[in-house]
Amino acid sequence: MTWVDACERLPRGSGTPVAAITGRYPADPGSGAGAGEEFWLVMPMYFPARHFAEDGTEHRNCFVDSDGVVRYPAGTGGEETVTHWAVLPALSGGSVHVLGADVQPALRGAARP
Prior knowledge:
The protein has a 5-stranded mixed beta barrel. The chain has a two-stranded antiparallel ribbon with strand order 4-5. It is built from 1 helix and 8 strands, in the order E-E-E-E-E-E-E-E-H. It has one helix spanning about 105-110; strands at about 5, 15-25, 40-45, 50, 60, 65, 70-75, 80-85.
């Protein structure tokens, strides 16, 4: 997997990359370990060239997670930012998605030592 700096280049077209995000855990002392600490982690997201949020707001060239949170490359505005992105690796069987009759042979191929 190759990580790309989101400020240098965005994915070509819409797709399903994973993205590295940065932020800070809530500073509430009751929130447990890591409270107030900065984090950098990887989340599955997709990259649409054009995305409409639930409230109808249009977003362009952004990253969207499974909860519908919209993030932009770091330094381009917004509190939720993406620092890096990468295209998910292909599954055993030759493509990112394996469907139908190709699933069981792909699973067997992945299970080989």
